[in-house]
Design brief:
The structure is a homodimer. By secondary structure, the first copy, chain A, is α/β, with parallel strands linked by helices. Chain A has 2 domains: about 10-185 and about 220-245, NAD(P)-binding Rossmann-like Domain (Rossmann fold, 3-Layer(aba) Sandwich), CATH 3.40.50; about 190-220 and about 250-285 and about 305-320, UDP-galactose 4-epimerase, domain 1 (Alpha-Beta Complex). Chain A is built from 9 helices and 13 strands. In chain A, the strands form 4 sheets. In chain A, strands 3-2-1-4-5-6-11 form a 7-stranded parallel β-sheet, sandwiched between helices. The first copy, chain A, has a two-stranded parallel ribbon with strand order 7-10. A two-stranded parallel sheet of chain A has the order 8-13. In chain A, helix 1 (about 20-30) crosses helix 6 (about 225-235) and helix 3 (about 100-120) runs parallel beside helix 4 (about 155-175). The interface of A and B includes residues 135, 154 and 165 of A.
């Protein structure tokens, strides 16, 4: 544990996974809003450089620790107003090969967080859920009221299990929760996902881009910046016991189009885009997701970027970060 | 492990929690249908006497083992056609005091079952979920399509988490599942629940019956016999990838009325029924549940008993079992 600073009496926000992709954007936004922030991260996919620009800020604490270590958890709760629980395995595909990662890093980690909160008297939790919980929804765009939800990936299962734990802690122990069902979130510092993969593939072979599936997979994409703005907007604006919202832009983009955008932004010439075929990229990949975000919009939130803009922006930033 | 008999090549049904309340009724029904049955139970709430009437039946194997022991799990999968996964902590209230029981005996146990199935090539699972997953639903009677589901008890959370794991194993590893969202199931051999509690209270004090809450809690009740019939009916009749149904009678009964019925069946005179007050019996108790069972009925299933009959029948049987 590094850089732990204590100033009791002043409320602080805890961000689990705060050194990760979305987590580090949330830390940026919280700091911008004048908040004190404590980050808990095990740096399995998070990176120290994602928070390097806060290294001189005495209001940003970084604690290296794991959500499966109960001792760390009770320590980090001191003085916390709201827990922003973003830590999780970020790689949906991993579940097809290793089946206990999402259970441990997702479901059990969320249980540990809730228990540490309960024991420390912290009662507010904001949680990054996912559109993956809907599985192959029969209604699109899919509203929050859709049911029954049947996740088809182990990642989606762990997100739904975490939602359930959170609502149970609200119902049984008086917690208050904001549950955000994320579209695909993209942006600078991305550590996984389709744009990230495409750039790495082009780095390995600038002549050929292999796309898993037939490229017709179509999903909602939202910029990380819009995503964390929406999260904080909801915490500010809605105040039920459980506040559960889809977070997205309202439109979709196909994987085929993403491949084209990444190739355009790469400035590479004569890239051959090749498809492995089939409707999904891997077992557990949902071919089409489209989130109904009217409920979010009804709170007055408007995203700055639509899916294609968010993707292009991300491609540009990640090409810069990864190098081609 | 006791009484393990192997006859490879002949399909068998595995019932986890098969010595428990509903599990033992399911074993009875499977045996009646001419099936070979293997029971796995840790006898934490299940009882050997619930299966005593099968002790001479060579087609009923009883294995004492825990779902948290991976070694036992891989052994019991041999030759299994369908896993009927009923094992769980049966006491919803326990979650208010001990928070990891439902996580371990529910969510993690289901994960262990699914993994053992995957490794052994067993692909069919029938799972006892619960109306507790709906929490305090805003639509009643509540259909399977209701969302978002927000369980308020730790038990409900573990059932929803287990559903999610099961649909993920269907989506990722080609499993087939029947998920049964039970109303309150009552009947002979009940080991917990409101009727069981009332009889024990009357046994301790035949003059006074204390009812938790104001007695206005109102729920759907179904007889254990109808419940296991419905489960087997669905496995027989519906054949999607994931088959998810509410199981209940379509009517409800109040806790106040249950108290009256139990007192009537007790033959005790001048019992004073007293209410502790408040809309719920305990934190996490859902004051009113009413399941929409049209989807079940559309498959041709008709329960033999409505809620009040099931309750009266149960009161009579449990008074006989427990003694007054």
């Amino acid at each position: 544990m590094a850089q732990r600073r204590e100033e009791s009496g002043i409320a602080m926000e805890l961000v689990t996974g705060g050194a990760g992709f979305i987590g580090s954007h949330l830390v940026d936004a919280l700091v911008k809003n004048g908040k004190k922030v404590r980050v808990l991260d095990n740096f399995s996919s998070g990176r120290k450089e994602f928070l390097a620009h806060h290294s001189d800020n005495p209001y940003v604490e970084i604690i290296e620790g794991d959500l499966l270590d109960p001792e760390v958890l009770s320590l980090v709760m001191e003085g916390i107003e709201t827990v922003h629980h973003l830590a999780a395995n970020p790689d949906i595909r991993l579940g097809t090969e290793v089946t206990d990662t999402d259970l441990k890093q997702g479901t059990v980690a969320t249980y540990n967080i809730l228990e540490a909160m309960r024991k420390s008297g912290v009662r507010n939790i904001s949680f990054s859920s996912s559109s993956a919980i809907y599985g192959e929804a029969e209604i699109m765009p899919t509203p929050e009221t859709y049911g029954p939800v049947k996740p088809i990936s182990l990642y989606g299962a762990s997100k739904l299990a975490s939602e359930a734990l959170i609502t149970a802690w609200c119902g049984t122990f008086g917690f208050k929760a904001w549950i955000h069902r994320f579209a695909n979130i993209v942006g600078p510092r991305g550590t996984h996902g389709v744009i990230f993969d495409f750039i790495h593939k082009l780095k390995n072979n600038p002549a050929r881009l292999e796309v898993l599936g037939n490229g017709m997979q179509e999903k909602s994409y939202m910029s990380a910046e819009d995503c964390v703005k929406a999260m904080l907007h909801l915490i500010e604006e809605v105040d039920n016991n459980v506040n559960l919202y889809n977070l997205g832009t309202g439109d979709t983009c196909s994987v085929r189009r993403i491949a084209e955008i990444v190739v355009e932004e790469s400035m590479l010439k004569d890239v051959s885009i090749e498809y492995t075929g089939g409707t999904r990229g891997w077992a557990g990949d949902v071919p089409k997701t489209s989130l109904d975000v009217e409920y979010l919009f009804s709170t007055g939130f408007v995203p700055e970027m639509q899916s294609e803009d968010a993707i292009r922006n991300t491609a540009r930033a990640l090409i810069e970060e990864i190098g081609l």
